[in-house]
């Protein structure tokens, strides 16, 4: 179940347009068609009293309203709500897409043979912004994703290490979600997406059209770095309301965590005409000086992506990774998930009841202390074991 609504601004514009148009038409008809005294006399036969005048205006308004509704709902018109001052969801629930079990973690839990996992740091980052999480499983049909998204307020594509050409995996599920999200937004139902690192790359590859050759380049970026903002970044949706002290930290300190060997560069957008739909808001440089896109947003849809990892400063602690844990790093990286959850509050989807919510939320699963096993993730959630469930206690 989901709620579809349009902004009060659009509603008021329609009302004013219809009313004024009806008045203008009647005045034109009165002054133009019935300009002479003879015609005025004839007019009395057409509109003998005030009630008939009101009836005529009502018919005109009905025709105009029908025309406006047709225009706003035709396939060629896309109306996506960007702001609503009154309709706010104070209980947002965000879906986080799982991905194929990593080779390393599979070796730590061979008996269970889990289908997929989610690093707990993404869940904590969303919860810290005031939302709850529902895990989205891979390998399901389109109806599963469509039904689940009708209950969620947005979807998060996490980073990780998986391939986009694996059947029934992260990329296939992501494609269903991406296409359904576009359909919802095209229908006026505000539905945000956010991708981090691998999730950011997935957004662009899905927008490009998946093929044998993926629309990204190889690079090497395993350092903390600042953001090089575009000149007009302050007019973007993501950064328009960002506090100045946050911007200064991001622009001048090495606080964004990069851990990727693929990059999206400007040429990737230009080669697929994506620069018309997607807006780059900042760049960073990899360890060899290659400039890559660090943050991006869609011009029409509430779709956002960052190549770096905002969650790691607060929630990942592997010493060898050298993640920045300063107060400035935590404060600046906190902004991104706060922004996304704020976007998700504009969506009014909901579960049918608290009981149904309880069946889906991630609290049905217990994270395991994978950091103690050498994983770069301090904790992980695992889903759908295909083998025998281990008797090892959950930590």
Provide a descriptive summary of the structure in words.
The structure is a single chain. The chain has 395 residues and is of the alpha/beta class. It has two domains: 8-73, no CATH class; 93-373, 3-Layer(aba) Sandwich (Rossmann fold). Helix content is 39%, strand content 17%. It has 13 helices and 15 strands. It has helices at residues 8-33, 37-46, 50-73, 103-108, 120-128, 142-149, 170-186, 198-208, 244-252, 266-271, 312-315, 327-344, 354-360, and strands spanning 93-97, 99-100, 114-119, 132-136, 155-157, 193-196, 217-221, 224-225, 228-229, 256-257, 260-263, 278-285, 291-298, 303-306, 380-385. The strands form four sheets. Strands 4-1-5-6-14-13-12-9 form an eight-stranded mixed sheet, with helices on both faces. Strands 2-3-15 form a three-stranded antiparallel sheet. α1 (8-33) packs across α3 (50-73), α6 packs across α7 (170-186) and α9 (244-252) crosses α12. The longest helix is centred in the first third of the chain and has 26 residues, at 8-33. The radius of gyration is 26 Å and the shape is globular.
Protein traits:
alpha/beta; 13 helices; Rossmann fold; 2 domains; 395 residues; 8-stranded mixed β-sheet; 3-stranded antiparallel β-sheet; disordered C terminus
CATH H-level superfamily title of the largest domain? Class I glutamine amidotransferase (GATase) domain
Percent of residues in beta strands? 15-25%
Strand line-up in the sheet with most strands: 4-1-5-6-14-13-12-9
Mean pLDDT: 85
* Unreliable stretches: 1-10, 26-30, 33-48, 69-85, 390-395
CATH architecture of the largest domain: 3-Layer(aba) Sandwich
CATH topology of the largest domain: Rossmann fold
**Class by SSE composition:** alpha/beta
Major β-sheet profile: 8 strands, mixed
Element-level helix/strand string:
HHHEEHEHEHEHEHEEEHEEHEEEHHHE
Number of helices: 13
